[in-house]
Design goal:
Blueprint (H helix, E strand, L loop, with lengths): L2 H11 L3 H8 L3 H8 L8 H22 L30 H4 L8 E4 L2 E4 L5 H21 L4 E4 L4 E2 L13 E4 L10 E2 L4 E5 L5 H15 L3 E6 L4 E6 L4 E6 L3 E3 L8 E3 H8 L4
Parallel strand pairs: 4-6, 7-8
Antiparallel strand pairs: 1-2, 3-5, 5-7, 8-9, 9-10, 11-12
Length: 273
């Protein structure tokens, strides 16, 4: 990324020089000089640290602002499946009715009429999701937060009036119990957590990020176990916060009542890292 691109992302997400310095581990004076254009040839280590930090947000910034929205990744979605839906349809035209005609052993999500294949999760993915679900169950019980955590697979019709979107987040929390039906969840969860897999990084970072934001999800966590990093998006304020697996991550929707200690997650999966 160029310095100008970094500054575009910094301004879009409201990062101060101090925040960038804290997140990258660089001296504040260095960040100010490099991003302010006062150092024309920064050291490789400095540029690498800045690029690594800003790159994660560049995709979201470009994706939201270039007008392509969810159609950006249509070509990476799965083709129409080899079974009879009763009529010929292309990606972008599928509905929830089509989704429920799929074979039960076929794991897909439907976003804006596009069917996306869901690869089988890995063991480390499932360990992280299971551990977080157990931690949220315990936190909710002890903190008095009147919400219910769910774990995949569970269908979420994320917009009540949208008949072209059904998702299955890895983990999500619903505080409005009127959204909970016997068959599925009807409406946007308050918090959604996706644990990255190699095949789902673009999908989770961009397609789901945009769709969850449009649906009214209040908080979106992306857990990258390879980098041992947790990106927490405040979807209301459009502010991301980045944590490591050594940090205690506050649950925004709990109004300060709940914190997830990711060192417990790290210890749980340590033998696989």
């Amino acid at each position: 990324m160029t310095i100008d691109e970094m500054n575009d992302v910094r301004r879009e997400f409201g990062f101060s020089y101090k925040a960038v310095a804290e997140k990258t581990g660089l001296p504040l004076s260095t960040v100010q000089k490099v991003l302010g254009g006062r150092i024309k040839s920064p050291r490789y280590e400095t540029l690498s640290a800045l690029n690594s930090f800003f790159f994660e947000y560049k995709g979201c910034y470009s994706f939201i602002n270039d007008g392509t929205r969810d159609m950006l990744f249509v070509n990476e979605s799965v083709p129409a499946y080899n079974f009879d839906l009763g009529e010929s349809k292309r990606q972008g035209e599928y509905t929830i009715d089509d989704y429920y005609k799929l074979p039960e052993d076929r794991r897909v999500e439907l976003i804006d009429g596009v069917l996306y294949d869901m690869a089988s999760p890995t063991s480390i993915h499932q360990m992280i999701v299971g551990k977080l679900h157990a931690m949220f169950l315990s936190l909710i019980a002890s903190s008095g937060v009147d919400c219910i955590p769910f774990i995949a697979p569970c269908d979420v019709k994320i917009d009540k009036d949208d008949d072209k979107t059904i998702v299955e987040p890895d983990l999500f929390i619903v505080c409005d119990k009127s959204k909970i039906a016997k068959k599925r969840i009807n409406g946007a969860p308050d918090l959604i957590i996706e644990v990255l897999s190699p095949s789902s990084k673009k999908y989770d970072h961009y397609v789901k990020f945009a769709r969850y934001g449009r649906a009214g999800v209040r908080e979106y966590w992306i857990v990258d176990w390879e980098k041992q990093r947790v990106t927490v998006h405040d979807m209301i304020e459009n502010i991301p916060h980045v944590y490591t697996f050594d940090d205690k991550v506050p649950v925004g929707i709990s109004a300060g009542k709940a914190i997830i200690d990711f060192s417990e997650v790290k210890e749980y999966i340590d033998f696989l890292l």
